[in-house]
Amino acid sequence: MIIGSNLMYSENLPSTNSHAASLLRNRELPEGCVIYTNYQSAGRGQAGNSWESEENKNLLISIILYPNMINPADQFQLSMVISLGICDFLQHHTDGISIKWPNDIYVNDDKIAGILIENSIMGDIIEHTIAGIGLNINQLRFISGAPNPVSLSIITGVNYDLQHCLMQLTSDLDKRYKCLISGDSDKIKSDYVSCLYRRNQLSNFRDENGLFTGCISGVSNEGRLKIELKDGSIKEYSFKEIELLHMR
Ligand code: BTN
C-alpha cells in the first residue's frame, strides 16, 4: 500500500494542504502519507475559493506523493487518478457519479467532492504533489452559498462511519495510483473520459466569444477539455477558458 500507508491526524487545522506544505518544508514525509482533520478553519478550494465543511462530518485530506515517473507536462494524470479514486469510492455507495471537468466530483447534477492538487515543480521534475480532497459524507446542510453541494448522507439517508470511509477511499486511491505507476496511463485516461459529466450530451457553454452548444467528447493529454461542435469540429479549452452552463 502506498496511499494510506501513513495516516497523520490533527483535530483541527487551517487547511490540510497548507499543513502538508509546511511539514514538507522541514522534512520529507513518506510517499502516500495522508494528512487529515475533522475541521478546517481556512479550507481552500480552487481559484482562491474557500471550502465549506462542518466539523466532524466529512473527509478532509491531503495526500503526499512523489510522482517522479511523471513529466510535469503530464501532471493532469494525477488529477485523473485522484478523481477516479474518489469515483471508485462513491460507486460502493451510490450511482449517478461523474467527473465535472477538470476535477469536481458530481452525483447527478450536484457536487459531492472537490480536489485541490498542488505540485512543486523543479525543472522537469515534480518534486512533490499535495493532493487535497474534500469529500462530503455526513453533512446535511450547506450554508456557504456554493451553487450545488451535496453529501453521501443527503443522497442515501445513511450516516457513515468516517474512519471506515477514509480506509475505503485511500484503498481506492491507492489502486488508481498504482495503475499510474505501472504505466497504464491509457486506462486512466479512458476511464476518466468515460466518467465525464455530460459527455456526449448536447450542452450549453460560454467561451470568450459568447454562448454556444456542443458535446463534451474527451480531454487532451494536457488535460484540455474537448468539445465537439455541431459541424463536427472539435475545440479544446483550458480551465477558465470555458464555462459549462448549468442545465437546470
Ligand atoms: C474545490 O472544489 O474548489 C477544491 C476543494 C478542495 C478542498 C480540500 S479539503 C482538504 C484539502 N485542504 C484544503 O484546504 N483544500 C483541500
Question: Topology, pairings included?
Answer:
Layout: E1 7-10, H1 16-26, E2 34-37, E3 59-65, H2 76-91, E4 97-100, E5 104-107, E6 110-122, E7 125-135, H3 152-156, H4 162-181, H5 185-194, E8 202-207, E9 210-219, E10 225-228, E11 234-237, E12 243-244
Parallel strand pairs: 1-2
Antiparallel strand pairs: 2-3, 3-7, 4-5, 5-6, 6-7, 8-9, 8-12, 9-10, 10-11
The structure holds biotin.
Question: Could you please describe the fold and organization of this structure?
Answer:
The chain folds into 2 domains: 188 residues, BirA Bifunctional Protein, domain 2 (2-Layer Sandwich), CATH 3.30.930; 43 residues, Roll (SH3 type barrels), CATH 2.30.30. The longest helix is centred in the C-terminal third of the chain and has 20 residues. It is α+β, with helices and mostly antiparallel strands and 248 residues long. A 7-stranded mixed beta sheet has the order 1-2-3-7-6-5-4, sandwiched between helices. A 5-stranded antiparallel beta sheet has the order 11-10-9-8-12. The chain is 25% helix and 29% strand. The protein binds biotin (BTN). The site of biotin (BTN) has 20 residues, from helix 1, strand 3, strand 6 and strand 7.
Count of the separate structural domains: 2
Strand content: 25-35%
> Based on the structure given, which CATH architecture of the largest domain is correct?
2-Layer Sandwich
Give the biggest sheet.
7 strands, mixed
What is the chain-wise order of helices and strands?
EHEEHEEEEHHHEEEEE
Which structural class is indicated by helix and strand composition? alpha+beta
Q: Indicate the overall shape.
A: globular
- What's the CATH first level of the largest domain? Alpha Beta
Q: Any ligands, ions or cofactors bound here, and which?
A: biotin
Spans where pLDDT lies below 50 across 5 or more residues: none
Query: How far is the N terminus from the C terminus?
Result: 42 Å
The CATH topology of the largest domain is BirA Bifunctional Protein, domain 2
The Rg value, from CA coordinates, equals 18 Å
User: What is the mean pLDDT?
Assistant: 96
